[in-house]
Amino acid sequence: MSRSLIEELKRRNVYKVGVTYLILAWVIIQVTTAAVPALHLPLWINTAVFLFGLIGFPFALFFAWAFEITPDGVKRESEVDPDDSVTAHTSRKLNFIIIGLLVVALGYFIYESRFISPSTNPSTHEIAVEQTDVETRSPVLSLVVLPFVNMSKDPDQEYFVDGLTEELLNSLTRIKGLKLAARTTSFSYKNKNIDIREIAQSLDVQYLVEGSVRKRGEDIRITMQLINGADGAHILSKTFDRKLVNVFALQEEISEQVAAALKLTLVHKESQYNAALAKLDYIAVEQLVTSRALVNEYNESSIQKAVDVLSKLNKAYPNTAEIIGLMAYASRVQMMIGEFKSDRQFTISLAEQALVLNDKNYDALVTLANIYGRSPQTLHKAKGIYKDIIRFYPADPEGYTDFIAYLIRNDTPCPTIDAFIKSVPEGLLPAKEQQQATFLISACLTPNIAADTLAKSDDKSISDLSFRFTNPDGQFLNIKNQVDKNPNQIALSDYYWVLLKMGAYEEAQRIIEKIKVMEQSVGSMMTIFDSYNHDIHISKSPFDALDSLDTLGSLLTSLDVVLALIKQSINEDKPEVLRNYLNKVTVFPVSIEILEDSLGLITLQHYAGERALSEKTAVTLFAQLTDYKKEFPASYRYWNLQRIYLVLAFYSHNEQMAQTILADDFPADYVYWGGRGYKTTKFQLQPWQDDPVVIEYLGRIKADQARAREKFGVQ
């Protein structure tokens, strides 16, 4: 009986129909998975397609058993005479269909595994942390490179020796299975006579590298010791006498010897200075090494010296990745501290040029990751670059911590961030950063457990990361501390911005006197727009800064920038300025990972007269945020997305939903002043100013501003 049943299943093509159905269903699921995020469709479509495919399988088998396709149409099997059956002909057709579908499936598999770029722009829900080449959770060895000692009689060689230490540190980051202490940590021990074992215990590292440098003209002598931190024993001790032009090859040799002594391997062994070795004379080598130390001092005069030297080197030795990459890095530091005129596109072009010459150039990768990660048009590229940094320089903890910060800044779902943190090799993140990142995820996913952990912990700083990113009060304290430590232009402009949001206009007026508003920098630009948004009159207006925005690029759709331009265009009755501005904005697909810029674009479209387009864009983003809230409710609350959801409800004409959001989504302890502030929010919601929801929401912001000013003692 069983044999006749099997033969009958074969005759009626039930097996082949089942195989055909499964292959076709797999192809459809793959296409849907790719199409849904690309078309910004709701995520439930993926679930629905899979569910319908699963339900349809038994029905396909049933119809294959019970019915037959004949020249006269579909008939029940019992109505077809065996002599008239065409199942054999149908079987041959199914063979061709199966072969065709297998070819499609195989082609897709090859395309996906070989040709899809790691920087393909995913949805917020699908930021692929699993592709960062963090393969295991096996423990890593820890090491600190102490500043080498200048043994030359010339004290001016200090920068050169410091630069050599930093170059060696960068070279050692290529050792897989190793964790290197950060440069700032290493250099905190410069010129200090402390026992090696005490340093190792203080930094919680297993090994230390120390050494000295003696330079005479074109000759250089470097001594290096690799030391066991537990007992101070020398594992490796070498003296190298070389010509100065060969110093980069020497660092490659030292890196290989350290890796071998620790029984680890370099992930890529070619010297990162291959291009430079063949061209630079000993003076150029010295200047290049010294420039790195100058850049990493992070102050105006030192960076300018480095930029001047590097510019001359670039003219003398064109197409040298190491020079161009360090130029890009120096330009990025200028933009960070806000002291100089910095052309964003020029910095990007330098970094991209360096990567064409050497796709592993560390300076260029770090520069592009930082710049790309802060612009809606290039955000998707940043993730791929962070992955390259982690892959090429696995011993650099900053690669991992910077990527975690990138995920946090973009409102990535907490489970996704948690998965990445758990994939990082054990011990690679610095202990403090590991504790803070772990607490942040716990506070998001299990807030009661996190609160209990914090209450029992003697170290309250474990909550610093969470507090800084999710609580405006914590953000204020963090920015205030930065100003106290280093009052550069970026820090001052950030402090000015947060004071305005809080409504502390007296303190803001005092701070603006310290900001160089005439400088073409990120800090100066934001000061101009923030001032106008809050009715503080300074020498320049938003319209005056339009040309500068082209060079800074990433600010084009910043909500603060957009609102200031809208406000001035209304005040001066110049709507054409907004229309022209909208035309030069590079279009980007709105998404949750660029919420602020997406909301800026929607607001700009609305006030520039593109009301229908604004509503359509708002509907798209509102739907995405609705799905995000359903799929990741804890992350929605933790990243304080309620305020954007509320504003989007009005711009997408979901006023009824706005009432529900205000009533249900804001917890009793919600900190309202940390959005855009009272004045900017009021202006953004001006078209609905008489709506009871808007009136209530603005009232809550104003009351919370007063609470915050009293708490921090500012007016």
Largest sheet: 6 strands, mixed
Structural class: alpha/beta
**Low-pLDDT segments, ≥5 res:** 114-136
The outline comes out as: globular
The amount of helix comes to 55-70%
Mean pLDDT: 82
Measured by DSSP, the beta-strand proportion falls in 5-15%
Number of helices, where a helix is a run of at least 4 consecutive DSSP H or I residues:
34
Count every beta strand, where a strand is a DSSP E run of 2 or more residues.
Answer: 10
The Rg value, from CA coordinates, equals 31 Å
How would you briefly describe this protein structure?
By secondary structure, the protein is of the alpha/beta class.
Q: Could you explain the architecture of this structure?
A:
- There is one protein chain.
- This protein has 715 residues and is of the alpha/beta class.
- The protein has 4 domains: 115 residues, no CATH class; 131 residues, Rossmann fold (3-Layer(aba) Sandwich); 184 residues, Tetratricopeptide repeat domain (Serine Threonine Protein Phosphatase 5, Tetratricopeptide repeat), CATH 1.25.40; 241 residues.
- It is built from 34 helices and 10 strands.
- Strands 3, 4, 6, 7, 8 and 9 form a 6-stranded mixed β-sheet that branches. A two-stranded antiparallel sheet has the order 1-2. A two-stranded antiparallel sheet has the order 5-10.
- A hairpin with a 2-residue loop joins strand 7 and strand 8.
- Helix 11 packs antiparallel against helix 12, helix 18 packs across helix 20 and helix 29 packs antiparallel against helix 31.
- The radius of gyration is 31 Å and the shape is globular.
- It starts with a helix and ends with a helix.
- About 3% of the residues have low confidence.
